[in-house]
Design brief:
single chain, 88 residues, mainly alpha, 82% helix, elongated
């Protein structure tokens, strides 16, 4: 059973991941369209390039989310206020 704080964190993580996947899917579809329409690349090579681009973007996304979470935590600790959703 998940604690309320864990459930809230999981919900936020899922929401971020869904928005990331929507954005990356649109970007990947556009890049794939450009590769297949205007270049003579092999489809397998095109797929490999798309996978590499998506991997780099995901690592960047994780780094940015970690920075945002760290700043939120520091800001909350600095203000001295208690998180209203935690039961500690």
């Amino acid at each position: 059973m998940l604690l309320p704080k864990e459930k809230r964190d999981l919900k936020i993580t899922y929401k971020r991941l869904i928005w990331f996947l929507i954005g990356v899917f649109v970007l990947d579809a556009f890049i794939c369209f450009l590769f297949l329409t205007y270049t003579s690349l092999n489809k397998v090579l095109c797929g490999f390039i798309i996978i590499c681009i998506t991997s780099v973007l995901y690592l960047l996304f994780l780094f940015i989310c970690a920075k945002i979470d760290k700043k939120k935590k520091e800001k909350l600790e600095k203000s001295g206020k208690k998180d209203p959703f935690s039961h500690n």
